[in-house]
Amino acid sequence: MAGEVRGRVFRRAIGRFLIAMVVATVAAPALLPAQPSQRAERDAAAMRRIEAESFAAIRADPGLMTVVREAGARLFAEHCAACHGADAAGGKGVSSLRAGSWRWGGDPETIVETIRVGINASHRDTRMSQMAPFGPRGLLTRPEAESVVAYVRTLSDPAAAREGPAERIDEGRAIFASDCASCHGADGKGKRAVGAPDLTDPTWTHGGDPEAIFASVWSGRKGEMPAWEDRLGPAERKILALHVIALQ
Ligand code: HEC
Ligand code: HEC
Prior knowledge:
By secondary structure, the protein is mostly helical. It has helices at 2-31, 36-52, 55-59, 62-79, 81-84, 108-117, 142-156, 158-163, 166-184, 210-219, 234-246.
């Protein structure tokens, strides 16, 4: 009698053990964190979708945007931070990517194209832009260059306008209209077609003090941004464009 009870208890225990095993086998993969290989597969699938989808579709997909955020920070640190700075705020001669002051445009399509072809780079489709040197070619005399600098400062700094002197600023305004407006626009707000920066905002790539502005005008500027088409895949370039936009 006692042996029969022991046998039933034992069989029930075995039964429970087997059920637990089955449950564990079925449920475990869903409960455990993804294995590295599964994760790589999931990331690869996300990369294929990022490559194929429009920017609007990527932005509307929280799952893809998680990949964009993770991969974007990593790719930026690896490939872009050396020049643009870890915080993307730029430095001497390198544009800030977080000031919203875009030379070529701040929409994802334009940014991804800038990344693909570079600026003054060796890529056949590269964007080309240059601030002409006005001094060495005798296009402006030194006093004329100083006048135009005095005027340019007033575009972003009301205090500079009050400092004057007014005749010098007026002369600079006239020089600006004839020699600079073709690229920087009559209002100084820049022209994206030629990559000429906005001179009315407080963001400067080469410096906004009178000496730095004079050097830009006198000696010219020609920054180089590498092309990434051969070094980063299309999905990676799209991720970087979205990453940069998210920094604004
Ligand atoms: C042929 C087109 C062109 C003309 C003409 C031109 N610029 Fe520029 N300018 C540019 C471009 C492009 C840049 C950006 C160069 C770079 O950083 O690589 C620039 C940059 C500058 C900068 C530096 C801005 C910064 O963020 O540091 C100043 C200042 C400037 N220009 C002033 C002038 C003035 C003043 C004139 C007229 C005397 C003038 N430019 C004429 C195209 C032009
Ligand atoms: C070797 C230095 C260097 C590296 C590396 C670099 N850049 Fe640049 N980048 C520049 C310079 C310099 C400019 C400004 C060019 C000019 O003066 O016209 C620029 C301009 C840009 C612009 C144009 C901004 C505008 O106003 O339209 C974008 C976008 C950009 N970089 C993104 C990137 C991204 C993303 C990476 C990483 C994949 C990167 N850059 C890596 C030097 C670099």
